[in-house]
Write a structure and sequence with these properties.
The protein is α/β, with parallel strands linked by helices and about 400 residues long. It is built from 17 helices and seven strands. The chain has two domains: about 240 residues, Alpha-Beta Complex (Spore Coat Polysaccharide Biosynthesis Protein SpsA, Chain A); about 140 residues, no CATH class. Helix 7 packs parallel to helix 9 and helix 13 packs antiparallel against helix 14. The N and C termini lie far apart (about 80 Å).
């Protein structure tokens, strides 16, 4: 047992942690990478993703590692997923993934282990100093691109969302059914983990970028970048339609709702008229036929007319995915009533351009009418509620006196 292995072998065992190394045609570097890892732990799972060079022969020299091999290349994401499955079969609870091209340093393994002890259950992501390592400009662009879309889809920030040097909490990822198989998997796993509220933390790591022809990369700039872009498009849509509404409502408690009502609805510093107008604007914008721009327009109106911005935005959010079909249906019915067409939808003449034009016009007219009606109803309910609940509040009288004296 050498000096590096001695203090950390016990920590690997205590955390039930192994190292997964996916490889594809890295015959020049794979032996050195494995020898460096063996300085710290023998618990290594190598996934040979259909290599056609000398890699398979070199791997036969390492008798104590666990080897998974494919007859054809299936992608880094698929290799990692199979590595996770094997690690769980072997009763490991954590797995550190390392690339086999020599970019990652085994000397950073202790950093992951120490951080895992302090932050149990976290997904740890290596944070590289790209400038210090002399990374090519295309890598820096790809990193900024990936970081930006990760923030859009999760609301979180990470300094490096592309580093493959990571520690995965295996049990927490077990219930996620991943969709991707290649390089884009490393984006998907971060986003899907964030949606499951798995803590994601950066860990500083070193990185080595060989000069020029020495570097072996299997990243296909056009194809893989296109796949990542398509994945980001899907993830953004899912974030807007599912993840963001889920976060909004999953974080609500009775105490938070009561505090919000006391703070925003019954705030003595604002008049009843301002609050009623805020509710009405939010209600109308929730139904208005400007999908995708409702909240932006509502916020603009609130700022322009000095309304309660929180109330306006909160009420405009009634147009969340579960409510959208109902709002569309009621808008369409309202348009039929106003235009004298009834409330039915006839398809006897087929779906023609005229059919689409007429029904779209009916929906637009109906959404405006229904929005006004809904705004009026909620405005009346709000006004009555304010009269009942603010009438006898001593805080309101005191607040109004202070407001008047200040003016």
């Amino acid at each position: 047992m050498n000096s590096n292995e001695r203090p950390y072998r016990e920590l690997f065992d205590r955390l039930r942690c192994c190292v997964i190394v996916p490889t594809y045609n890295n015959g020049k570097t794979i032996a050195g990478v494995l020898n460096d890892i063996l300085e710290y732990t023998p618990d290594i799972i190598v996934v040979d993703d259909g290599s056609t060079d000398e890699t398979p022969a070199l791997l036969q020299n390492f008798k104590n590692i666990t080897l998974i091999g494919f007859t054809r290349n299936k992608g880094k994401g698929y290799a990692l997923r199979k590595g996770f499955e094997k690690a769980r079969e072997m009763r490991f609870e954590h797995a550190i993934s390392m690339d086999s091209d020599g970019q990652h340093f085994a000397s950073d393994l202790p950093g992951f282990l120490n951080f895992a002890e302090k932050e149990p259950g976290s997904l740890l992501v290596g944070a590289r100093n790209m400038a210090l390592a002399g990374a090519p400009s295309k890598s820096n662009f790809g990193l900024r691109f990936s970081n930006f879309w990760f923030t859009v889809t999760t609301g979180l920030r990470l300094p490096d969302t592309q580093c493959g040097y990571r520690l995965y909490p295996l049990e927490k990822l077990k219930r996620i059914r991943f969709l991707t198989r290649r390089f884009e998997f490393e984006v998907e796993v971060l986003v899907r983990a964030a949606w499951r509220k798995i803590s994601i933390r950066p860990v500083p790591v070193k990185v080595y970028y060989p000069a020029g022809d020495e570097r072996v990369s299997h990243f296909r700039p056009f194809t893989d970048f296109l796949r990542i872009s398509l994945l980001n498009t899907v993830l953004v849509l899912l974030a807007l339609l599912v993840f963001r509404p889920y976060l909004l409502f999953s974080g609500l408690t009775r105490a938070k709702i009561r505090a919000f009502i006391r703070r925003e609805l019954f705030n003595p510093q604002e008049s009843n008229g301002v609050k009623v107008a805020s509710v009405m604007v939010g209600a109308f914008m929730a139904v208005a036929p400007v999908w995708g721009w409702q909240m932006a327009i509502a916020l603009g109106i609130a700022i322009a007319f000095r309304l309660n911005k929180i109330i306006v935005l909160a009420v405009s959010n009634i147009s969340i995915p579960p409510m959208i079909p109902l709002l569309l249906y009621l808008s369409y019915i309202s348009g039929g009533i106003v235009l004298g067409k009834g409330i039915g939808l006839s398809l006897e003449g087929g779906i023609t351009f005229e059919f689409l034009t007429e029904n779209l016009f009916q929906y637009v007219v109906g959404s405006i009418v229904f929005g006004l009606v809904l705004a009026g109803i909620l405005g009346i309910i709000t006004y009555v509620a304010l009269l009942l609940f603010r009438k006898k509040q001593p805080g309101r009288q005191q607040g109004l006196k202070q407001h008047n004296s200040g003016s």
